[in-house]
Write a structure and sequence with these properties.
It is built from 5 helices and 11 strands, in the order E-E-H-E-H-H-E-E-H-E-E-E-E-E-E-H. It is α+β, with helices and mostly antiparallel strands. Strand 10 and strand 11 form a beta hairpin.
Length: 191
């Protein structure tokens, strides 16, 4: 029993080919996707000849799309995006930044990037800066700098936790705010 079958593409199929290509695909892919949706059929010389005009147009479209993508990638490389997100006081986001979010933000600034073209190394769940890879084709990619910032001012704790040599927390007495302000001005004037 054959595990692959030759088919003639009647439509452009991403990552497979354009109209008029004769391709080898697995039987399941052909039976479950290409044939039921009308993207492919059994190859014959008559069909190949009848699709010649559509193939020529498809080649022109692919070349034009490639040129547009090359121009977009040259402009996109090095761009910076800033996204405001709700987070807790430690900078952990309540949600996460997804490929769809980044794609939508890029579309707002004029770059037509599909969510599947945004490659994230992992979930973005912190307020920080990230280097994002945008890959629109196997050899066309750009790097975008993403700044995820808090939607509000995050209070920095001036008092860091301190631990002794045994790992026990050193508890400091808290000064009232008025005394703390006086102490800060005294040290500033002493310098």
């Amino acid at each position: 029993m054959s595990k692959s079958v030759k088919l003639l593409l009647t439509e452009n199929v991403d990552s497979l080919g354009i109209v008029g290509d004769v391709v080898n695909v697995k039987v399941g892919y052909a039976r479950n996707y290409l044939l039921p949706f009308g993207y492919a059929t059994e190859p014959s010389d008559e069909l190949i000849a009848s699709l010649a005009e559509r193939r020529a147009q498809a080649e022109k479209d692919v070349a034009a799309r490639r040129k547009e993508r090359e121009e977009m990638i040259s402009k996109l490389d090095g761009q910076e995006l800033t996204m405001d997100r709700a987070c807790n006081d430690q900078g952990h986001l309540y949600g996460s930044v997804t490929q769809q979010d980044i794609s939508a933000a890029l579309k707002e600034v004029g770059f037509q990037v599909a969510p599947r073209e945004v490659r994230l190394p992992g979930a973005i769940k912190r307020v920080d800066s990230f280097d994002i890879l945008v890959k629109v084709d196997s050899d066309l990619e750009a790097h975008v700098k993403l700044w995820v910032v808090a939607d509000r001012h995050i209070e920095d704790d001036e008092d860091e936790m301190e631990f002794d040599n045994e790992g026990e927390l050193i508890i400091k007495e808290k000064k009232p705010q008025a005394e703390k302000a006086d102490a800060d001005t005294e040290t500033a004037s002493a310098e």
